[in-house]
Prior knowledge:
The chain is α/β, with parallel strands linked by helices. 47% of the residues lie in helices and 14% in strands. The chain has one domain (4-257): Rossmann fold, CATH 3.40.50. It has a 7-stranded parallel sheet with strand order 3-2-1-4-5-6-7, with helices on both faces.
Amino acid sequence: xxxxxxxxxxxxxxxxxxxxxxxxxxxxxxxxxxxxxxxxxxxxxxxxxxxxxxxxxxxxxxxxxxxxxxxxxxxxxxxxxxxxxxxxxxxxxxxxxxxxxxxxxxxxxxxxxxxxxxxxxxxxxxxxxxxxxxxxxxxxxxxxxxxxxxxxxxxxxxxxxxxxxxxxxxxxxxxxxxxxxxxxxxxxxxxxxxxxxxxxxxxxxxxxxxxxxxxxxxxxxxxxxxxxxxxxxxxxxxxxxxxxxxxxxxxxxxxxxxxxxxx
Length: 263
């Protein structure tokens, strides 16, 4: 029997690619987007490409949306992929921007997961959740520290769920992308300049040059979407899945070095 898979944040990026790829493989895919215009666009694209997708609206910060989706669909796999990035120096970043990231990246993903977990346990149904976190869930990138903090939180929540739900046959995994060219990273850097003012803020504008430079050689997102698809479908995947391998090796070295870093 073919599994039913729900993907959040499927309007663009990894979520969209994974949704189409899973549907092409014959799985029943519910691709959700934040707002109705994205629903219309994705429906149109699905129809034009001849790929059968169920498209629905799900803003993960909207409790009514969450309750509606949980009540409407019976699923086997949840790919919790919706996320936002607001950049900037954390010593100066407006707190409401940091809160908005935690609302989407942490509380939204957790609330949706809790609802489906409760449903699965009532149904005595084996299931799986895959969280798209980030390489920033495992180390802190300068000038996106608050974003990384939200992803660190989600990584920790995922680890807790993995342990606590093992007895219920609900599997948990994370996928941790490196720097991929979906537009997500570029918009994250753009977001800094909607509030940052060199005449008012003490962080010099030159501080952001490295961030801009790092976006010049972003990777093709297809391989990361492939990783998400493979992890979702693998009944015995690793819990943590950093891609590409160079990023995994880099993070392992940073984590080893962290024990001797001076304050």
